[in-house]
Amino acid sequence: MPIAFVWVSGQLLRSEMIAPSIQWQRSFGGTGSDLLRSVQQTSDGGYILGGYSNSTTNGNKTSPNFGWWDYWIIRLDGEGNERWQKSFGGTSNDFLEVVCQTRDGGYLLGGHSISEVGGTKTAPNYGAFDFWIIRLDADGHELWQQTFGGTENDQLFGLDETSDGGWILGGTSASSTNGNKAAPNWGLQDFWAVRLDGAGNKLWDQSCGGSSTDVVTEIGSARDGGFLLAGYTRSGADGTKTSPRLGFLNDIWVACLDSEGGQLWDRAYRVLPRYSYWEVYDQVLESFDRTPDDGFLLGGPVAFSVPPQFGKTEFGVVRIDADGNELWQRCLTRKDTEYLTPVGDFLYSVRTLADTGFLLGGTSGFPFEEFLRDFWLLRVDENGEPLWNAQYGGLQSEEIRSVSQTSDGGFIIGGPSVSEPARNKTAPSYGSTDFWVLKLAPESPRLKALQVTQAEFSFALFPGTTNHAYRIDHSTNLIDWVPSSTNYPRTYKVQIGAPKPRTSTSFYRVERLP
Predict the structure, then answer these.
(1) Considering 40, 282, 313, 356, which has the largest number of Cβ atoms within 10 A of its Cβ?
(2) DSSP string, 197-232
(3) Cα(101)–Cα(105) distance, rounded to whole angstroms?
(4) pLDDT tens column, 343-365
(5) Of 352, 448, 434, 336, whose CA–CA distance to 389 is shortest?
(6) pLDDT digits over 258-278, tens only?
(7) Among residues 49, 53, 33, which one has the least CA distance to residue 41?
(8) Angle in degrees, CA 215, 218, 223, rounded to 5
(9) CB-CB contact of 247 with 272 (8 Å)
(10) How many CB atoms lie within 10 A of CB 123?
(11) Local structure of residue 124 (DSSP, 8 states)
(12) Which helix (H) or strand (E) holds 511?
């Protein structure tokens, strides 16, 4: 697709980008409920899907059901065709939150389980929910499994492979020092991190928190071999929490640990409303990703009270540096107006892209109509400015839970779907809720103005994929186009110069050549 720059009296007015097209989509499920939580491209160009299911063997689900909810994973090839699927569970509830391919081509599954030993679960239950991880080989065969927890609820929401081939697990704990939990409890719920070696043996565990509720939703490697725990909090400055409480309900909160689990620093953040008469009454962090400068982009839904409406919920993002200092924040919504029927935009997944911009995925609809929501995908640049957005869905409810960029420069997005085929959903429905995954094409290239001189101006080209030729054309009437140059970029950002237009209005476009 061509992209045009409009140049009027020497000022850039707009740069148009078009959302990428759907290359393929697939749904998976039985007649029960199947909730997709994690989608990742594998090293061979295929995909691994993970979530939880209470369906028996029906629909296109061929793996058995062991309890009420089970872990369920599906391996796809690069075209979205199923290679195999597996389910894991005990006799009660087991919720898979994340699946990660390991460096050796296997997988680690992470979530929380309340099941006793039974079904495929051989690790013990320490009380209520425990962290439950399962290590698989490349073909989905189990190598080992482990549980971690105390006598209260301990729920895993994030994990990351460490540089030494071990693992860091992150979640929320209400347990005191019992079971195999050695870290203390500071309040109602704490941030809880567990460091493992490559065989799944615990090296240490650490808890962070104040006297109220602190919920981890993500964990990842930070600068200098440490780890960042991120989530939301209602605690004040007590326990190990040094940052004050900022809002009425929840604040975004992050805590940085060193490689041995010692707390280095913590910070709380509050996303501000776009209008002074709005009030923030709640915000949570659902996802983060590391940025090229060793900082992080934090994202989740922010709820506002908007007189005289009940309120609205928007995507809220905060970018921080490696030391936790805020660089910028944004509130982003599908309907960017002061007063409207309340709109609910809930952000669940953020990812850093190769050109240093970001992809944000969630759901958009009406806050009080849970069955009228679509996948909503929003692309922003490195400063959080929107480039394009797209909605996907049928006539009922869909929510993106996982987004990432693929090796061809496109995107893979996925989450649960309730809808039958309608609108731009063509994949079938098998039951109450299904896994729904979409592969999107690479982006069209885009242009960004950099500098203007008396004779020329320069702009940066951001191609959707590298190793292709891109032709730059110029026009004064959008009918007659004159080629300016052809470029063969090898990176995602190439600076290009062009003659400054002599007319008051000039158009530039870029097209990827075959």
Answers:
(1) 313
(2) -TTS-EEEEEEE--SSBEEEEEEEE-GGG-EEEEEE
(3) 6
(4) 689 999 999 998 889 999 999 98
(5) 336
(6) 999 999 999 999 998 877 777
(7) 49
(8) 120
(9) no
(10) 20
(11) P
(12) strand 505-512
**Using the 8-state DSSP alphabet, how is residue 12 labeled?**
E
29, two tokens:
């499920």
Which residues make beta-bridge pairs with 34? Answer: 53
Dihedral of CA atoms 124, 128, 129, 131 in degrees, nearest 10, equals: -40
Q: What is the DSSP letter of 482?
A: E
Q: Tokens for 5, please give them.
A: 């720059």
**Topology of 447-512 in CATH?**
Immunoglobulin-like (2.60.40)
Whole-angstrom CA distances from 225 to 96, 122, 193 are 27, 32, 15
DSSP string for residues in 42-69: -TTS-EEEEEEE---S-TT--S---SSB
Give backbone dihedrals phi and psi of 431, rounded to 5 degrees, phi first.
Answer: -170, -150
State how far the Cα of 267 lies from the Cα of 258, in Å rounded to an integer. Answer: 15
- 3-state SS of 383-434 is CCCEEEEEEECCCCEECCCEEEECCCCCEEEEEEECCCCECCECCCCCCCEE
**Tokens standing for residue 287:** 């996802």
CB 134 within 8 Å of CB 111: no
The answer for residues whose C-beta is within 8 angstroms of residue 432's C-beta and 6 or more apart is 31, 32, 33, 418
Instruction: Report how far residue 88's alpha carbon sits from residue 53's, in angstroms, rounded to the nearest whole number.
Output: 10
- Per residue in 326-342, pLDDT tens? 999 999 987 655 454 45
Structure-token pair, residue 427: 């994949």
For the chain, what are the domain ranges? Answer: 7-148+406-420, 447-512
- The tokens describing 168, both together, are 């860091």
Please, is 142 exposed, middle or buried when counting C-beta atoms within 10 Å of its C-beta (0-12, 13-18, 19+)?
middle
H or E element that contains 163: none
Residue 1 has what pLDDT? 47
Q: What is the pTM of this model?
A: 0.91
